[in-house]
Every structure is written in structure tokens, then in C-alpha cells.
Amino acid sequence: MISVEQALGKILEHVDVLEAEESPILGCLGQVLAEDIFSSISIPPLDNSAMDGYAVRSIDTRGASRQSPRFLRVIDTVTAGSISGSEVEPGTAIRIMTGAPIPKGADCVARFEDTDESERQGTPVEIGILTEVEPGLEIRRAGEDIAAGSLVLSRGTVIRPAEVGVLASLGRSKVMVIRRPVVAILATGDEVVDIAQPLPEGKIYNSNTYSVAALVLRYGGIPKILGIASDIEDSLVAKLHLGLDADMVITSGGVSFGDYDIVREVLAREGEIVFWRVREKPGRPLAFGMIKSLSKAGGVRNIPLFGLAGNPVSSMVNFELFARPAILKMMGKKNLAKPTVEAVMEDAIENTDGRRILARAIVEKRGGQYFARLTGPQGSGILTSMARANGLVIVPEDKPGVKEGDLVEVMMLDWSEEVK
Ligand code: AMP
Ligand code: MG
Question: Where residue 259 falls among pLDDT bands split at 50, 70, 90?
């Protein structure tokens, strides 16, 4: 049996970064930029006003105060998006709105609050300036955000809402990004029934397909749901073949030692098993291998296949440990590890068989310290334990367990890998 680290190492050796494709900027949230983005324009394009007020010559405001205003003739109004045809000459001012280009001749803006505008009716023909205004005040300089010709975003950047906004500010509607992997998802088991069907006695609904598909979506992939295969090899193979145009295949169930545990056999027949047991809990049976896909053109493609254990908690935890980093690597991400925190344990966990335990926990911060308590019974069939959890407490394989008050490392399930 191999360790979690060894298993992850082997998985990452077998998956590659996918190709780049052009995508509309709103479609690529969370994807990795595959080109350097240079700007052909300056942003802002022109010096413009940071406030509503009057564009003036600072020298004309010398000595101004509330008791002794400096009166200037108002010769124009300029709004955002237009350019004044007038020039501010000695003794004059141009009324200006936020974002409007600074007119020629002006070197600063006196805010409305620093004028007597509120005492005047309509658009004033004269304005009193009530304070001295320094040169450059309330002016946003051309190119202060982005200088024309500069590198704005580098290849490898993960696109967040701010990057989407920056791309839009450059007038980019599309951008090259590493494409999202398509992940085929197949449930197995004669007892498993689709959620759209009535539930016959003795059967259970297929939850794994949906929890796994939701995880695929969360980490940026595109789920392709293949449905449910029965516990007969031919059924599994037939359904599996429907997924061989994907970039990854994830099955659930049928990977342990039972009579109907056929995923491994099928994987060995249709490809190559890389490993199938990992020293961890829940979910020791975890088959990973490469499945052969014959393309129409006659070429062979090897697709990574994760055979997750059927228990709903095992399949989710093993997805987080193994399939998640593989998807992130395929998407060109560099940070593959979930952030962890050190927490004070409020329950005890016994480790009886030398495996790494990932226990579902509720992590809370109190008084600057994280605390972790178990979500309740830890059976790998108790999926609500996963719904209650926001972290997985890691009990090392070489420890007999953890006691109340021990410091533990907790993997934070809802934190982004980009948090360091
Ligand atoms: P297996 O790994 O096939 O032996 O399944 C282990 C346990 O997980 C059994 O109790 C199964 O009924 C359950 N199980 C398997 N597949 C699913 C599924 N798709 N949704 C919910 N439970 C499942
Ligand atoms: Mg089964």
C-alpha cells in the first residue's frame, strides 16, 4: 500500500497541462491565462477629474478662503466622455464632472465643496473658490492605472473577477486560457438508482455522481455524466466507452474486494493500473490508472481514470485528495494543495491500523485560535457528515491517534488553493 504523497506523486506524473483555447472573458473565471496581456492604450487615456468641481489654475486660487473667496468666470461645463473646446485662462474656470478630461490651461480641480456653488442658482456664470488648491489636486493622471505598451497580466495568472475587469478595461472580449478538462463520471452498482426514478425497495439513490460532478464544477472542470453501470463487466465497459472522449474518467464503487468489484479488472483489461490502494481512511481502495481510448483517426490516447470507492464520503474525500489536484494541474494551476490550518482538537480520534485518517470536522476560530471538532459519527456512508464539515482533520499514519487538546493540521475544504 502506498502513502497519500506517493499516490499523488504518481497521479501528477500521469497528467499533463491541457491546451490553450480562446474564451470569452466571462467564461474563464478560475482558468489560467495562456498569453501575456499587453496594453495598446493608456488607462485612463487622458488626465481627468477625480471629483465634481471646477477645473482652475492653481495660481488663481492663491490666498482664497471662506472669508475671502477668489471669484472666477465660468466659461464652460465638461462632462465625462466629452472634451471641452475651451481653455482655462487667467481668471476663468470650467465646471467639470468626475471622469471628464482636464481642459487645457487648468492644473487642478476645486471640489464643489470648496466653492460657493451651493449658494448659486442654476449653472453659475461666476464661481467663488473658498480655499487654495494645490497644483495636481483631484487630477487622475493619464496612464496612472495602465501605461500604453506595458505588460498588464502575465501568462500563468489565475483569472479572478479583478482580472476579468482589467481585461474589459483593455477592450478585450476574449482571451487565451488553458482549457477546462471534461471529466466523465460513472456510478456503478446494481443497487444504485438514478435520482429521476422512483426508489424500489432495497435500492439507493445515486448520490456519488452528483457530489463528484459538483466537485468537478467547483474546481473548474466540465462534468460529463455517464449514468449508472450495473455490476456486470460488459455494462461497465459499454458505459465507460461513452466517456473516452473526455480528459479524465471518474468511477465510483466496485473497487474493493467484493464479488462485484469489477472496476480494477476492467481498468487492467482496457488500460493500465498504476495503483489501487492508498494508506488512508476513508477510502483505501482507490484505483488509479490510464485507460486507452482509440480515436476515430486511429491514434491511442491514455486517459487518467480514478476508481473511487463507492461509499459517498470516501468518494468525496478521495476526490479532494487525488482527483482535485489532477484537475488543477490539467488547468495549468501551480498551487495544487488545499490550505491547512493548525487547530486545537476538541475530540479524540483513534488510529488503529496505521492509515492516515481524514476526519470530517467543523473548524471555528475563537480568540485568534482555530478549534476543530468532529461532525459526529464518521462512518464512510454518512454523507451528511461531509455536509456539516468545513475541514478534514489529518491524523498522521504513524500516530496512534489524537487526543483532546492536541494541535492538529486541518485541510480547509472551502478555502481556495490560491490562499497561502
Ligand atoms: P462499493 O464500493 O461498490 O462496494 O460500494 C460501497 C458502498 O457505497 C455501498 O454501500 C454502496 O451501496 C454505496 N454506493 C456505491 N455507489 C454509490 C452511489 N453512486 N451513490 C451512493 N452510494 C453508493
Ligand atoms: Mg458496488
Answer: low
CA 151 – CA 219 distance, rounded (Å): 28
The pLDDT mean for the chain works out to 96
Q: Whose CA is closest to 376, among 359, 393, 364, 363?
A: 359
Distant-in-sequence, close-in-space partners of 301: CB < 8 Å, separation ≥ 6: 244, 292, 293, 295
Phi, psi (5° rounding) for residue 98? -55, 130
Question: What distances in angstroms separate CA 91 from CA 61, 70, 143, 324, one per listed residue?
Answer: 9, 9, 30, 67
- Going from the Cα of 205 to the center of ligand 1, the distance in angstroms, rounded, reads 10
Spell out which residues line ligand 1, taking CB within 6 angstroms: 187, 189, 191-192, 204, 206-209, 252-256, 258, 309-312, 381
* Beta strands at 271-277 and 285-294: parallel, antiparallel or unpaired: antiparallel
pLDDT of residue 297: 78
Using the mean position of ligand 2's atoms as its centre, give its distance from the Cα of residue 241 in Å.
19
Pocket-testing residue among 252, 260, 382, 386, ligand 1, by greatest number of atoms within 8 A of Cβ = 252
